[in-house]
C-alpha cells in the first residue's frame, strides 16, 4: 500500500484522467507526487525515460499517458495512434521494471473488446473476434500494453496491473471540435448552438478564444462566425438553429465521470494485486489448463445510453431549444459497448456520480471558465 510520502509518478498528469488522479491523490494526503509535462520528459524517447526512472527512483506509477481522440482523430491519424501509444507504453512499462517500481497501474480503454462481442463486455471476451475498424490501431496498442504487463508479471515477478475504463468525461476534458470525444464535443456544439440562437456573438468569441477553431482570429465578424459554426454543423435558418451531429444517434455508450475513475484507481493501487486478478481470472476461466490470461479489470458504471438520448439530456441541461439532426453518412462506430463491472464490484468498488450530475459539473465548469 502506498504511504503519504511514497514517490508516485503520474504519467499524463495534464490530461483528463491524469489530472483527476493527481487531484484525488492530493486530496487524500499524498505528498510526493512526480509529474512531467511533454517539454520536460518526452515519453516517446527511450533514453530520456530510462534516465528519468533511474534518477527519480519512482515507487508507484499511475499510467494515464496516451494519444487519444474521437472517431475522426482515430480514422485520420491511424499510424500516429498505434506508433505513439506502443512507444510510450514500452518505455514506461519496461523501465518501471528495470528500475524497481513496486507497482504500476496501466489504463487502457473499452475499445480493446471485439466489435460484435456480447454485451455487457466481460474481461474474458478479449481477442475473441475482430475489432471495430475505426479505432483498431488504438485498440491494438492498448491490448499490447495490457499483454506486456501480464507478460512482465509472469516472467519477472512484477506487480503491475491493467484496468480498462469505459468512456470517460470530466472537468479537464478536451473540447476540440475536431478531435475530442463524443460527450465534450456534444456539450460544446450544443452550447455554441444556444449562443447562436440567442445572437450572443460575444460569448461565441470568448469560446473561440478559449478553444480556438480553424480560421478563428483575434476578432471575428458575425458573418465569419456563422461560416465557422456552419462548418461544424451549427446553422441558423428561418425556423431557428439546427445542429447536425455525426452518425445515426443510435449507438449506445457508457460514460464514467473522471473523478470516479480516480477513486477506482487509488482503490486498485492500494488494495488489489496482480495475484488477486489471477485468482479471479482462474475462477471465471473456461480454459481447462488454467492459462493465465485476461487479468485486466474493467472500470465503468455497467449502464449505457443512446447517443441520441445523451444529446437530448445535454440540450436540456444547457437550455438549447433548437433542432438536433443526425448525419447517417458519418460512421457510428460500434453500435453498443458497455462493460461488465462485476469483477470490480466483487472486489469492493462502485461508481458514485450519476451521468446527469457529471454532465452538469462539466458544463458549469466550462461556462465558469469562458
Secondary-structure topology with pairs:
Blueprint: E1 8-11, H1 16-27, E2 33-34, H2 46-56, E3 60-63, H3 71-76, H4 78-98, E4 103-107, H5 136-156, E5 160-165, E6 167-169, H6 182-197, H7 201-210, H8 222-231, E7 234-237, E8 240-246, E9 252-253, E10 255-257, H9 258-271, H10 274-284, E11 297-299, E12 305-306, H11 307-318, E13 323-327, E14 336-337, H12 342-347, H13 355-368
Structural description of this entry:
This protein is an alpha/beta fold. 44% of the residues lie in helices and 14% in strands. It has helices at residues 16-27, 46-56, 71-76, 78-98, 136-156, 182-197, 201-210, 222-231, 258-271, 274-284, 307-318, 342-347, 355-368, and strands at residues 8-11, 33-34, 60-63, 103-107, 160-165, 167-169, 234-237, 240-246, 252-253, 255-257, 297-299, 305-306, 323-327, 336-337. Strands 2-1-3-4-5-11 form a six-stranded parallel sheet, sandwiched between helices. The protein has a three-stranded mixed sheet with strand order 7-8-13. The protein has a three-stranded mixed sheet with strand order 12-9-14. Helix 2 runs parallel beside helix 4.
Amino acid at each position: 500500500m502506498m504511504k503519504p510520502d511514497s514517490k508516485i509518478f503520474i504519467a499524463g498528469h495534464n490530461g483528463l484522467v491524469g489530472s483527476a488522479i493527481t487531484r484525488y491523490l492530493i486530496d487524500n494526503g499524498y505528498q510526493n507526487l512526480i509529474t512531467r509535462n511533454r517539454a520536460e520528459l518526452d515519453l516517446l524517447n527511450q533514453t530520456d525515460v530510462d534516465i528519468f526512472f533511474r534518477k527519480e527512483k519512482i515507487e508507484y506509477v499511475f499510467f494515464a499517458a496516451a494519444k487519444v481522440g474521437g472517431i475522426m482523430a482515430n480514422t485520420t491519424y491511424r499510424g500516429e495512434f498505434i506508433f505513439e501509444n506502443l512507444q510510450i507504453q514500452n518505455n514506461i512499462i519496461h523501465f518501471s521494471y528495470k528500475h524497481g517500481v513496486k507497482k504500476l497501474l496501466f489504463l487502457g480503454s473499452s475499445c480493446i473488446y471485439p466489435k460484435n462481442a456480447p454485451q455487457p463486455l466481460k474481461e474474458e471476451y478479449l481477442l475473441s473476434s475482430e475489432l471495430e475498424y475505426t479505432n483498431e490501431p488504438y485498440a491494438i496498442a492498448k491490448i499490447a500494453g495490457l499483454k506486456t504487463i501480464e507478460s512482465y508479471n509472469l516472467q519477472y515477478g512484477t506487480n503491475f496491473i491493467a484496468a480498462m475504463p469505459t468512456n470517460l468525461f470530466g472537468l479537464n476534458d478536451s473540447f476540440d471540435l475536431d478531435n475530442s470525444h463524443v460527450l465534450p464535443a456534444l456539450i460544446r456544439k450544443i452550447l455554441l448552438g444556444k449562443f447562436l440562437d440567442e445572437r450572443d456573438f460575444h460569448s461565441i468569441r470568448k469560446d473561440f478564444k478559449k478553444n480556438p477553431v480553424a480560421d478563428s482570429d483575434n476578432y471575428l465578424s458575425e458573418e465569419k462566425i456563422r461560416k465557422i459554426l456552419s462548418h461544424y454543423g451549427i446553422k441558423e435558418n428561418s425556423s431557428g438553429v439546427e445542429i447536425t451531429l455525426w452518425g445515426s444517434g443510435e449507438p449506445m455508450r457508457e460514460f464514467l465521470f473522471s473523478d470516479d475513475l480516480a477513486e477506482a484507481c487509488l482503490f486498485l493501487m492500494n488494495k488489489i494485486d496482480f495475484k488477486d486478478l489471477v485468482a479471479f481470472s482462474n475462477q471465471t476461466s473456461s480454459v481447462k489448463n488454467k492459462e493465465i490470461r485476461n487479468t485486466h479489470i474493467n472500470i465503468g458504471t455497467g449502464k449505457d445510453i443512446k447517443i441520441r438520448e445523451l444529446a437530448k439530456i445535454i440540450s436540456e441541461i444547457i437550455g438549447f431549444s433548437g433542432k438536433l439532426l443526425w448525419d447517417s453518412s458519418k460512421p457510428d462506430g460500434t453500435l453498443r459497448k458497455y462493460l461488465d463491472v462485476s469483477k470490480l464490484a466483487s472486489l469492493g468498488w462502485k461508481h458514485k456520480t450519476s451521468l446527469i450530475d457529471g454532465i452538469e459539473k462539466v458544463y458549469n465548469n466550462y461556462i465558469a471558465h469562458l
